[in-house]
Amino acid sequence: MIINPVTRISGFMEIDADIEDNVVADARTEGLLFRGFENMLEGRSPFDAVYFTQRICGICSSAHALASTMALENAMSIAPSQQGRYLRDLIHGCEFLQNHIRHFYQYTAPDFIRLPESNALFATDHNDFRLPKEKNDRIVQHYFDSLAYSRSAHEMLAILGGKAPHNHGIFVGGVTAPATPEKITRFRALLLEIRTFICSKMIPDAYTIADYYKEYFANGRGYGNFLTFGCFNAYHKLGTLYVDPVTNRDGKITPLNPGEITETIYTSWYTAETETYTPYETITQPELEKDDGYSWVKAPRYRGLPYEVGPLARMWLSGAYRHGISTMDRTIARVLEAKKITDVMLTLLNNLIPCVSMQKKYQIPESGRGAGLVDTTRGALGHWVKIENKVISLYQIITPSGWNLSTRSRDLLPGPGEKAMIGATVINPDVPVELGRIIRSFDPCVSCATHVYSKGNLIRTMQVVP
Amino acid sequence: MNTTSGSCPNFSMRLETASMLFHKAVDAVQQGQIPKRNLIWLELTGCAGNIISLLNGEDPDFKGLISQMVHYLYDNSLMAAEGEFAMDQLFDALDSDYILAVEGAVSTKDEGLYTIIGRWKGRPITAYEVIQTFGERAAHVIAVGTCASDGGISAARPNPAQCVGIQNLLNRKVIKLPGCPCHPDWFMGTLAYTLLFGEPELDARQRPLMFYSTLIHDLCPRRPCFDRGVFATQLGEDTCMFKLGCRGPVTRVDCPIRKWNDRVNWPIGDDGPCIGCAMFGFPDKMEPFVRFDTT
């Protein structure tokens, strides 16, 4: 069984699933888009990475701006000011709100509610819509109402960051422009409106859907291994407002050691000096004729194991949500996290000092290296940069969707997204609506995950289009 | 925050262009003066930032677009359908009258296998195939954003996926709306104009004059600083950023008056240089984006 395109995600993706007696026996997720950002960045000015890497993804560009900025600061031994951190984390917070609102209403809800089919965009091929008309119609109304709030979240982002998507605000040292009292006031007003929408509409709507699709609390579990790089944390005065870098395995929460992050290419069509390597070590070369290869997607690992990242991982690891690990828990954790982020943003806003300048005339070092690790809308994002002769000599990116959609290493353990689908019941294998629902709960971003990957296995087997 | 040039009637009128055209088009549809035509939105080799930007439109907004102005048939990011059923919706429209909007460049390497937009009748459909199939038959083709217009960041050196703008693959004229991303007004205004009157007047690079006729530098509120030689030496200063690498002097688009996200701000307003994202040759010919070594 193949689903392609998996719509309502960012980018292109195929699910190949073997379904036996209505149960998923095996499943593979494959990205279908290749651009090669890491190759492009070689030889460019390190500063340009901040604006360049944002173009990896149109829905989470600020995340890349932030990780890239942190990697540069690390390489240049620059500590951002606390006011600078508050401001750029506020910009990042806007992106969380924008993303979570759009992911819930525009990407997730159409799996469970019937949108007006008079509109061709909303035609579906299944009939598994269970909400009573009145409740269904209320969420349909919120589908359209939500557009104003996700738009407002980007307006807030632009107040501090110039424009969205692809902002100009986040930069080495903090942000480019100081916040004026006028900006802070307008930002706060929009934030409070969004918060009201999240609390009074989005969270209740998620629970309403959950009431009618209870079996989705029992599928899509995956491994239960969680990892976060931390976000909105370790401020000098404010401490940690959300979550520190930690991991969970077998119910045990331990601090993250970034030195134990690796990527492996055993089932990916690449060669490198070693099959498993750390981010600073190598950029892989494509190799199509590889016997064990089945995909171009690589396999990020922590201590050799696949880990799930994202809102459920963060809410679990921070102790804010421990109801369960499933398709529906992922969606509920996401909407609850949106509220949590508004709390964090209000705290940061209350601690802003207006009109503080934080920029300097920076010098690019002759050589250096640095890492920027931060949790973003979809989970743990890492940028690693090496500088030689004042230009980028190596740039490595491991994205959240790289973790969640990862392929298999020598132990043949499926990636977290694959694992979540395996074992799921599919009522009608001709219309496997369950699989799309499960994989969308991860909020896959294939624009991100496949910035260096493609649908390689097709190259040998598919019919080439004339 | 939003005070520049508000008093100039030329500027304030231009801010109404997209909204006015949209409402005219919707009225004409409702009164049966023009048909409600089909719109297909293809995402190809890019970041999907242009559809996100389109959702940011306020007046006109996305809901108005899909419910009042056109029959919006296909969009990978927003359609409820998935898999083969979604692809059927696309291919069923092939013989109908439709306007094609495209975001993203087209990867041409290895017969286009680096971007596959879906599987139809068991066969993977590449961006390379779909743009040629749907591009030639469309009533109008609108390239939305810099990648679709000229290759953009997807074609940055060494261009690993061998990306090109869609015009390179089509034997017909494409309307180009470069910008990374494309401003929702530029798209909505162009689409509404096209529905009402046909193709708008374009410049030599196929961009609608109503949005792309002015140089950022000529309308920049910091132009007086440039003229007097007052230059910023670091980001975050409110003077001219020419020496930090600002590409306003070569970038032709109306950001200084239109601004972004409900007109609340724009890159130069945020004390960061313009990086020329709406220009042919972005990013390679616009780099370095930021420099501190100009004397």
Question: Can you walk me through this structure?
Answer:
The complex is a heterodimer of chains A (466) and B (295). With 466 residues, chain A is of the alpha+beta class. Chain A is built from 13 helices and 16 strands. Chain A has helices at 37-41, 48-52, 61-76, 82-108, 133-161, 181-212, 311-317, 327-350, 400-404, 416-421, 433-440, 446-449, 457-461; strands spanning 2-3, 13-20, 23-31, 170-171, 174-175, 226-227, 246-249, 252-255, 261-264, 270-271, 276-277, 285-286, 299-302, 367-376, 379-388, 391-398. In chain A, the strands form six sheets. A three-stranded antiparallel sheet of chain A has the order 1-2-3. In chain A, strands 6-7-8 form a three-stranded antiparallel sheet, with helices on one face. A three-stranded antiparallel sheet of chain A has the order 11-9-13, with no helix packed on it. In chain A, a hairpin with a 2-residue loop joins strand 4 and strand 5. The two termini of chain B are 31 Å apart. Helix content of chain B is 32%, strand content 13%. Chain B has helices spanning 9-15, 17-30, 49-55, 62-69, 83-92, 127-137, 146-150, 184-197, 209-212, 216-219, 223-228, 255-258; strands at 38-43, 71-74, 98-103, 106-107, 116-120, 123-126, 140-144, 163-164, 175-177. Chain B has 295 residues and is of the alpha/beta class. Chain B has a five-stranded parallel sheet, sandwiched between helices. A two-stranded antiparallel ribbon of chain B has the order 4-8. In chain B, strands 5-6 form a two-stranded antiparallel ribbon. Chains A and B meet through strand 1, helix 2, helix 4, helix 5 and helix 6 of A and helix 3, helix 4, strand 2, helix 5 and strand 5 of B.
